[in-house]
Amino acid sequence: MWDTVFSIANALALLMWVALVFLPRWPALLAAILYLGVALLSAAYAVFLIAVVAGIVPGGEGGNFSSIEGVRQIFASDAGVTIGWIHYLAFDLFVGLWIARDADAKDFSRLVQAPILFATLMAGPLGLVLWLVIRERRARAGGRWQ
């Protein structure tokens, strides 16, 4: 079961990333990425996490979030790895969507955006920090929080 969930989540996230990077950013597309991508992955994460924590679905028995050993126990199961991976997929896609929208608003070309979005896909916080550094001058010129 967890292999199938993992594969479906990966395919959905990859489809959304391809659309974000290569397709025109029409409002309907951005909404689809937000609701069919980010929200669906987030909902799957919540449902599976609750199911495992409530004991409805086995996985991560004896694990907790209060120690490294407890977290290791959670990730020692296919359920824990899959749920954790869906968490990464959802948040990285959300950050990528924010970067793309912010970059478009600040008139950065798609050629500048593409490697930052790729870095966000592969290592979310790395892409985010790259974007925060690159956007700083234009953000300051337009007003700090624009």
UniProtKB/TrEMBL annotation:
One Pfam entry name? ABA4-like
Q: Where are the transmembrane segments?
A: 7-26, 32-58, 79-100, 112-134
The protein's UniProt keywords, in alphabetical order, are: Membrane, Transmembrane, Transmembrane helix
Q: What domain of life does the native source organism fall in?
A: Bacteria
- Its name, as the record gives it, is DUF4281 domain-containing protein
Lineage, top ranks? Bacteria, Pseudomonadati, Pseudomonadota, Alphaproteobacteria, Sphingomonadales
